[in-house]
Design a protein that fits this description.
The chain is 14% helix and 24% strand. By secondary structure, it is an alpha+beta fold. The radius of gyration is 28 Å and the shape is globular. The termini are far apart.
């Protein structure tokens, strides 16, 4: 029997430099564990996926599979082709994001016949189950299992995936049921690699002094992580290939000394670990991650961890339930959880031409760029993270650290601003090699006869973004990017407005050429991270000779390495001050991080497309990823707030005074009517006069930019997503959007603060998801420190035509054919019509903004509220002075405005002051707190503020 391909160890190259390949290979099927047994009366189907076998997947097999929309929550689901819906567990494929990969490389899911129910009480679930017994005679309340870790969560194991889907849909509408979903194990990738050189320079760099985290200075002060436990969430179901039974973890006194890596054993906390492999002789990635955090020091074995006296707990990854259980495991005993993994968000075309078949004829093709999709977390995962933030570490908040990802393939502004072009039927998706587009001079672009092999390069794309895995960018969660030893961004490191900070890893420079299998295979720059490694793998030739020892690597890399460096530094901060909340740690790192490569006169890159303010003194060309907002706070899509400085962070942690109370200004659900986003289109701009080979030129014309607005009761529309009265000091901003239509990757979505700083929430990319956005939340740190008051705007623009790319005709003996040259521009892409044979056709359609929600996280100031915002646009219009309470002060303020003829007293929005406004305000004046997170009296009005944890804000309406 073959081993699970996810555990296959790539052959180590014996010559340096080692290539760093961002191999994005979908995980194979995962076996159901014994604890996920079927419901009463059911048997586990023999066709369930077996993780110890290599499962052959063909286009025909996928075609036979049944298409079902599997709910992850009430509001969101993913369309999957489920191989056997009549089994308790079945492998399944998301073909909507796999349009450019062969069938055997499609990201593979496992769907289980387990219904996850979020409910007000067990009685509510039992009542709902009782109503269904007529259609499901075997269903009974005894099958309801209450979660041990997450309040209000229940599971029901039933016979089949199909039954689970039917029961979830039926239960969803029952009284007391908040949310229903199915248990799904989604494909994961580990964010790591295996390149480059020697020793633990991230702790102290003697070769390039100063290019380190100043961790050695902290160690010299006897701060080493004592009393802190870091959970390493790594192992996947079915990936256990150790020489012992994983159940041995539950045996008191079991001797793991021969199994756990010897440089980790003294810090391994068996009593806090889940039943999974610890960091041992048969595991590579998790062993390397654990070693960066907590390899034991001064024992004569290999190196040391960033927090070498911290405890290490092994946590188990897998399905939605398993990940949620891990994130809530031992809430008060495990202080930090490191997640050096993420969803598979990128797939690549199957050959060097970047073509995808659109029919059975070999000539039926269309150009496709790499798919960059997004992964909306399941409801149970959201609840788990929130519970850890609220209750972890005795209400100070568990610290969740995520690797940002290895999906960036941005090749620099010189290539991005030139843009892309396609030549069909020559069949290419090519760079333009000059700095201007001149339709009459095609030879400025590329050789049309194909004589020049320019390869297939995707310069006009930025690749993956942190926004496409929102669980890692939630407020008070840390997404960490990677910086090379040269203090330059590692070429693979995923960027975004939700990136919090950066840490060292192997640096790479992206090459010019795109590899269809491995993506951009970066050339290593500098050294990788030295850490523990799987014993039996052999020595690492990238290490200096005296360190070429089995069980040690000097070339661990990726954001997989950067995240545990950051987690280790946070462990040092907690030893220096155990009372720090998660918010405290965020503020300390934000204030002490080093803004690498900041240009004080550069303009933020979005100004290229007309978003944001251009610095009149800017001399830098091209633009920068850094933005200095109105509070003079710096944030970069590439580096977050900057490189973490361990010594500065620990020093500030020692005497940290704490933070004021956290609030969230919440607009509530804003329903947006009639906001259709105009589609981009191909327009013909000229033809080559060469009669022997006529060529037609097209360009992509982006759709018209549109913005959200609000409609008053009078019918008057006011521009802006929300007008905020309170002058709070911003920490983070969330925008939740629902947009109907197919193909969210067509859109550029930008949030603009009242003071002109901008956040590009979504960048045009090849994402052909069937549901554009359904209650999808973006998080940005671009507005940290700004004042909240004023009008917040959100803009939408379409950059990818829904129609097919013009393709021309092939030449033959009698006809020279007709060549179509299409210029896409920096953000444009080939036409998005259909996914192509043998995958089901999924044409992109018109996108319409349905609803939005703005949540601003921040703290109170003593500044006056912005009284210019119309109260009728707020979610608590009776609160005129913006203090969160409706009382006599608001009544007095209304009459002051009314008697003075001030139109701020115009409560019905008709543009004049009449007795009707007095009547309207009287209806709004219901004394009480606007805070919706407090207790509620019998009349339904909140009567007081809640008692939240330091990381759980009190809600006030916008």
């Amino acid at each position: 029997m073959q081993s699970d391909p996810r555990n296959a160890r790539p052959a180590r190259r014996l010559s340096a430099p080692v290539q760093f390949a961002f191999v994005l290979i979908a995980a194979s099927g995962m076996a159901a564990s014994a604890q996920n047994a079927p419901g009463a009366g059911g048997q586990m189907n023999a066709n369930q996926p077996n993780a110890n076998q290599v499962n052959a997947v063909t286009s025909e097999a996928i075609g036979r599979a049944e298409r079902l929309v599997i709910p992850l929550s009430n509001a969101a689901g993913i369309p999957l082709r489920v191989e056997n819906p009549n089994a308790f567990s079945s492998r399944a494929w998301d073909t909507t994001v796999g349009s450019m990969v062969p069938a055997e490389r499609l990201p593979q899911h496992v769907v289980y016949g387990t219904v996850i129910v979020v409910a007000e009480s067990r009685a509510a679930v039992a009542a709902g189950v009782a109503k269904l017994q007529g259609d499901f005679p075997w269903l009974n309340p005894n099958m309801i299992v209450e979660s041990e870790n997450i309040d209000g969560v229940y599971t029901i194991d039933v016979r089949t995936v199909r039954n689970a889907l039917r029961i979830a849909e039926r239960l969803r509408v029952e009284s007391g049921i908040i949310d229903t979903s199915l248990n799904v194990e989604r494909p994961h990738q580990r964010h790591g690699g295996d390149p480059a050189l020697v020793a633990q320079w991230h702790i102290e760099n003697t070769l390039n002094p100063g290019n380190d985290h100043r961790i050695a200075e902290v160690h010299a002060d006897d701060i080493t992580g004592k009393g802190v436990v870091v959970g390493i969430l790594e192992a996947f179901r079915g990936s256990f290939n150790s020489p012992y039974d994983p159940d041995d973890l539950a045996v008191p006194g079991f001797d793991f000394s021969s199994s756990v890596h010897p440089d980790l054993f003294d810090n391994f906390r068996q009593n806090l670990s889940q039943q999974t492999d610890p960091f041992q002789v048969e595991v590579t990635h998790e062993t390397a991650v654990a070693g960066i955090v907590g390899a034991v020091a001064n024992n004569g074995i290999f190196g040391r961890g960033v927090a070498f006296d911290a405890g290490l707990a092994a946590l188990r990854n897998g399905s939605a339930i398993e990940a949620a259980d891990a994130w809530t495991h031992q809430l008060n005993s495990i202080h930090i959880i490191n997640n050096s993994w993420g969803p598979v968000n990128i797939t690549f075309p199957p050959d060097t031409t970047g073509l995808v078949p659109t029919g059975p004829d070999p000539e039926d093709v269309n150009v496709r760029p790499p798919e960059v999709s997004r992964s909306q977390p399941a409801t149970i995962q959201e609840l788990a993270i929130q519970q850890g933030l609220n209750l972890g570490r005795n209400n100070k908040g568990r610290i969740y650290v995520f690797s940002a990802g290895n999906g960036n393939h941005f090749q620099g502004w010189d290539r991005f601003l030139i843009g892309n072009a396609a030549s069909l039927p020559q069949h290419g998706f090519l760079d333009i090699v000059t700095d201007t587009f001149a339709p009459g001079n095609p030879f400025d672009f590329f050789a049309l006869d194909g004589s020049d092999d320019l390869n297939w390069r995707y310069s006009g794309m930025m690749g993956d973004r942190t926004e496409y895995w929102p669980i890692a960018t939630k407020p008070n969660v840390f997404a960490i990017g990677a910086v090379g030893e040269s203090n330059q961004l590692a070429g693979y490191s995923t960027t975004g407005t939700g990136l919090f900070a950066s840490a060292y890893s192997l640096g790479t420079v992206l090459p010019q050429n795109f590899d269809p299998v491995f993506g951009y295979v970066g050339d290593p720059v500098g050294r990788g991270i030295t850490t523990t490694y799987q014993i039996g793998e052999g020595s690492d030739p990238n290490c200096p000779g005296f360190l070429q020892i089995d069980g040690l690597t000097c070339s661990f890399s990726g954001t997989s390495a950067a995240a545990p460096v950051a987690a280790g530094i946070m462990a040092l901060m907690l030893e220096a001050n155990p009372d720090l909340t998660t918010r405290d740690i965020k503020h300390i790192i934000q204030r002490t991080a080093i803004p690498l490569n900041f240009d004080p006169v550069g303009s933020y890159w979005t100004t290229v497309f007309g978003f944001g303010q251009t610095d009149p003194d800017a001399t830098t060309e091209p633009p920068t990823f850094w933005q200095a907002n109105s509070a003079d706070v710096l944030h970069s899509d590439e580096y977050g707030f900057g490189l973490i400085d361990a010594a500065a962070a620990v020093e500030k942690a020692r005497t940290w005074p704490g933070l004021p109370k956290l609030f969230v200004l919440d607009s509530g659900l804003i329903e947006i009517e009639d906001l259709t986003i105009p589609d981009a289109e191909f327009i013909e701009v000229g033809a080559d006069p060469d009669e022997t080979a006529p060529k037609v030129f097209h360009i992509v014309l982006p759709g018209e930019r549109v913005s959200a607005g609000r409609e008053l009761p009078s019918g008057v529309t006011i521009n802006g997503l929300a007008c905020v009265r309170e002058n709070f000091r911003v920490e983070a901003v969330e925008v939740t959007l629902t947009i109907s239509g197919v193909g969210p990757g067509d859109l550029f979505i930008v949030l603009e603060s009242p003071r002109g700083s901008v956040s590009p929430l979504a960048i045009p990319r090849a994402d052909s998801s069937e549901f554009a956005y359904t209650n999808y939340t973006f998080t940005t740190y671009k507005h940290w420190g700004e004042l909240s008051s004023g009008t917040w705007n959100i803009y939408f623009q379409d950059f990818r035509p829904d129609e097919e790319t013009p393709i021309g005709t092939l030449p033959d003996e009698d006809d020279p054919g007709e060549e179509h040259i299409t210029y896409f521009g920096p953000l444009g892409m080939p036409g998005a019509n259909g996914l192509g044979f043998p995958f089901p056709s999924l044409d992109h359609t018109e996108k319409t903004v349905v609803s939005a929600r703005l949540r601003i996280f921040g703290t109170e100031t003593d500044l006056e509220p912005n009284l210019a915002c119309p109260p009728i646009l707020t979610s608590c219009p009776g609160d005129l002075n913006g203090d969160g309470i409706i009382d006599t002060a608001d009544l007095q303020l209304f009459f002051e405005w009314f008697l003075a003829g001030d139109l701020r007293a115009d409560m019905n929005g008709d543009g004049q002051l009449t007795f009707d406004d007095v009547v309207a305000y009287r209806a709004l004046w219901i004394p009480g707190f606007c805070n919706r997170s407090g207790p509620v009296n019998p009349s339904g009005r909140p009567i007081g503020p809640s008692n939240p944890s330091p990381n759980n804000p009190t809600i006030r309406p916008i």
